[in-house]
Amino acid sequence: MAGEALSPPDKSSGLPAKTVKIVQIFEAKTHLSRLVAELEAGSEKEIVIARHGHPIAKLVGLDEMPPSRRIGVAKGLFYIPDNIDEENEAIAASFHGLPQP
User: Fold this and answer.
1) CATH number for the domain including 30?
2) Where does the pLDDT of residue 11 fall: very low under 50, low under 70, confident under 90, or very high at 90 and above?
């Protein structure tokens, strides 16, 4: 059985209390997909999960995740010479125990 409660006012900003949806743990397990959909849709900002009427957890949506930076992460940190590939054959030969070209 879902309920709603007012959270305490935010003392730092002076904002009024907001309504928080409270669901019992059995309902949260049974309807997790629906609860997540409510967070995604923005109809709920947070959902408190309770056991026997006592809050035990909070389900909140994530803000947009920033893309991870992988390509170009070391750009400008080192110099690559124009002739970097000149010795590829000699290096490959040394790995295979072949005579150097």
Assistant:
1) 3.40.1620
2) low
20 touches 48 (CB < 8 A): yes
Ranges 33-37, 48-52, 78-82: which has the least confidence: 78-82
Rounded to whole angstroms, how far apart are CA atoms 91 and 68?
34
Range list of H helices, 1-101: 25-30, 32-41, 88-95
Q: Beta-strand (E) ranges in 15-99?
A: 19-24, 46-51, 54-60
pLDDT band, very low/low/confident/very high, at 6 (cuts 50, 70, 90): low
The answer as to whether 96 is a domain residue is: no
| CA pair distance 76, 54, nearest whole angstrom | 54
